Backbone:
């Protein structure tokens, strides 16, 4: 009896447990173990990219003839003005590309001669060939308070007398003909005849000097080598001297005579006017490179034949006149004025505003008033 009752109780208990639990849940397998990441660390600070420092503004001395930097030792020093032969037979000239300003003007017979003005002689090598003076070149040298280097000069007192004016005007003249500055030996003095030029160009086109020799003369000079107190150049410069409102002047043609015409072609890549003469690039024989300048000036003025036996001419650099100023491929009309003999050139636009030159070298063409200058 007891066994039946126990069996019934067990059956009942199983039924109750079965009703309460329902179906047995499926067992989800454990997920696979994933690769473990390395412990997290702080990311390194990025290395800063170096930035180029802006160039410090130049505060040193500037060349008063170019507006470009120059050595401290040249501040207040008188420049040198060197007469340069420009005949076809005298080409190539030497060292003219290193002049800060080149002046070109007519001589007798329609030929031209040049005068290179050098404020600093750093790096200036051989210069030449050196030729004789005329009175209007003396005026240009005096305008810069320059030491004038030449080999000879005109000497007809009734007409064109450079030698007489050297004395009368107090020009500091280093003369290779009537002075103690010429030697027959190579580099024996301030000036000498270069053997190679003497052979290839002839004796008259062979007189040369160097920047080093000029400095030697300055170091032992009995003449004044510094500007007098109060001397100020009246040239102003800007990084870009392109004249506002200027007309196109990609090519400038400057006829001096039937013998000589100059041509200036603007190179936008360099900002320079590249020079040609006698139908060829105007090259410096020392470097073989074509000469280029930042500024081109044309001065129109009176020219008069003196009637002497040599056909010398007078060039009027006293008073006022008209001309042109070109820079950056543009040109404007200008007015010029100068007092004789030692006054500086003053250049203004037609409204009287002083011309501002581009930083760099300048070429001044002094031509007759009827010269037909062309611009393209």
Residues:
């Amino acid at each position: 009896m007891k066994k039946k009752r126990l069996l019934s109780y067990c059956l009942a208990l199983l039924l109750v447990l079965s009703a309460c639990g329902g179906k047995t849940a499926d067992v989800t397998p454990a997920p696979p173990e994933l690769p473990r990441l390395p412990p997290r660390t702080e990311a390194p600070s990025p290395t800063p990219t170096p930035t180029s420092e802006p160039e410090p503004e130049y505060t040193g001395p500037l060349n008063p003839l170019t507006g470009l930097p120059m050595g401290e030792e040249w501040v207040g020093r008188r420049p040198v003005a060197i007469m340069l032969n420009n005949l076809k037979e005298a080409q190539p000239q030497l060292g003219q590309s290193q002049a800060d300003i080149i002046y070109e003007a007519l001589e007798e017979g329609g030929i031209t001669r040049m005068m290179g003005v050098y404020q600093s002689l750093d790096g200036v090598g051989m210069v030449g060939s050196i030729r004789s003076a005329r009175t209007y070149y003396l005026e240009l040298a005096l305008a810069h308070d320059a030491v004038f280097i030449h080999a000879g000069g005109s000497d007809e007192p009734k007409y064109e007398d450079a030698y007489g004016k050297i004395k009368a005007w107090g020009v500091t003249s280093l003369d290779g003909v009537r002075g103690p500055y010429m030697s027959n030996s190579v580099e024996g003095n301030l000036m000498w005849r270069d053997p190679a030029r003497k052979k290839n160009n002839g004796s008259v086109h062979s007189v040369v000097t160097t920047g080093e020799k000029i400095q030697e003369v300055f170091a032992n000079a009995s003449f004044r080598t510094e500007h007098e107190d109060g001397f100020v150049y009246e040239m102003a410069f800007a990084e870009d001297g392109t004249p506002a409102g200027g007309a196109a002047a990609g090519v400038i043609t400057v006829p001096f005579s039937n013998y000589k015409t100059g041509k200036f072609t603007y190179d936008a890549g360099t900002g320079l006017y590249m020079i040609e003469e006698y139908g060829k690039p105007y090259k410096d024989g020392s470097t073989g490179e074509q000469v280029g300048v930042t500024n081109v000036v044309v001065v129109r003025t009176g020219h008069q034949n003196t009637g002497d036996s040599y056909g010398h001419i007078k060039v009027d650099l006293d008073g006022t006149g008209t001309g042109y100023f070109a820079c950056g491929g543009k040109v404007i009309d200008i007015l010029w004025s100068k007092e004789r003999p030692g006054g500086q050139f003053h250049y203004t636009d037609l409204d009287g505003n002083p011309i501002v030159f581009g930083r760099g070298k300048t070429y001044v063409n002094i031509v007759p008033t009827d010269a037909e200058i062309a611009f393209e």
